[in-house]
Specification:
The complex is a heterodimer of chains A (about 110) and B (about 110). With about 110 residues, chain A is mainly β. Chain A contains no helices and 11 strands. In chain A, strand 5 and strand 6 form a beta hairpin. The radius of gyration of chain A is 13 Å and the shape is globular. Chain B is mainly β. Chain B contains no helices and 12 strands. The radius of gyration of chain B is 14 Å and the shape is globular. The relative contact order of chain B is 0.34. The chains are: A mainly beta (about 110), B mainly beta (about 110). At the A-B interface, strand 4, strand 5 and strand 9 of A face strand 5, strand 6, strand 10 and strand 11 of B.
């Protein structure tokens, strides 16, 4: 079955360490997204990519970095510069260029930084 | 700025009754798509219903329907014959033709009582 896989489900890190969240999709979608979810704030866009080797900043990109070397993969690195990294992170993908195409989401990664 | 507002942080409904969740948005675009997503306790994001902005007819999916008022920039979700499994966070979102970004509201937590 096609879908989006995020791993791991739970991630714990010490403050000051960089950490990379994995996102893989086998839906053959061109566009991929990273969202952050905090209580009471909904989903906020961190980065998105519409094609391989290209990506754009979302609304809260500071302290994060991404790469898009393969169509299937869009890893997110939470750097030590991110002031409040503890959150639930959701990866999504969709068909590019069709605004009616819904986003398909992974199951998320809960990151806790202490 | 493009924003989505969900003014009801929490709502409750009795099983078999009807409930309406409100959503307003602000955009200067004339063509866009609107979505409602459901996030149950598993935190998986599930598409509930979508609406094309240029269509006047309100979308319907089984027990779920929308009341789309384009002039008022309002997009409410009506759930009929509420079931216990409808209990979840509900997010309103929109996407324009100019970008591939999906902008989310802050969500409404729906409780369903037997």
């Amino acid at each position: 079955d096609g879908g989006i896989t995020q791993s791991p489900k739970y991630l714990f890190r010490k403050e000051g360490q960089n950490v990379t969240l994995s996102c893989e999709q086998n839906l053959n979608h061109d566009a991929m997204y990273w969202y952050r979810q905090d209580p009471g704030q909904g989903l906020r866009l961190i980065y998105y990519s519409q094609i391989v080797n290209d990506f754009q900043k979302g609304d809260i990109a500071e302290g994060y970095s991404v790469s898009r070397e393969k169509k299937e993969s869009f890893p997110l690195t939470v750097t030590s510069a991110q002031k409040n990294p503890t959150a639930f992170y959701l990866c999504a993908s969709s068909i590019t260029g069709t605004v009616n195409s819904p986003l398909h989401f992974g199951n998320g990664t809960r990151l806790t930084v202490t | 700025a493009q924003t989505v507002t969900q003014s009801q942080p929490e709502m409750s409904v009795q099983e078999a009754e009807t409930v309406t969740l409100s959503c307003t948005y602000d955009t200067s675009e004339s063509d866009y798509y609107l979505f409602w997503y459901k996030q149950p306790p598993s935190r998986q994001m599930i598409l509930v219903i979508r609406q094309e902005a240029y269509k006047q007819q309100n979308a319907t999916e089984n027990r779920f329907s929308v009341n789309f008022q384009k002039a008022a920039k309002s997009f409410s979700l009506k759930i009929s014959d509420s079931q216990l499994g409808d209990a979840a966070m509900y997010f309103c979102a929109y996407r324009t033709f100019n970008t591939d970004k999906l902008i989310f509201g802050t969500g409404t937590r729906l409780q369903v009582f037997p």
